[in-house]
Amino acid sequence: MNSEISKTNTNKPIKINLKALILLVIFVVGFCFLIPKLVDIQEALKLILKVNKFYLVLAVTAEFLSYVGAAWLLGIILSRLGYKIGFWDRFKIGSIAAFAIHFFPVGTLGEGAVDYYFLRKKKVEPGSIFLMLILRVIITYSAFLLVFLIGLILVPTAPHLPFSPKLISLVIFVLISGGILYLIYLYRRKSLFRQRWSSFLKIVDFFLSKVRKREISRERSDEIFTDIYQGIGLFGKKKRSSVFALIAALIYWLGDITCFFFVFLSFGYQIHWGVLIFGYSIASLLGMLSFIPGGLGVVEGSMTLLYSALGVPATLALMSVLVFRFFSFWIWIPVGLYSFLSLRKNS
Question: Domain locations in the chain?
Answer without folding.
Answer: 51-346
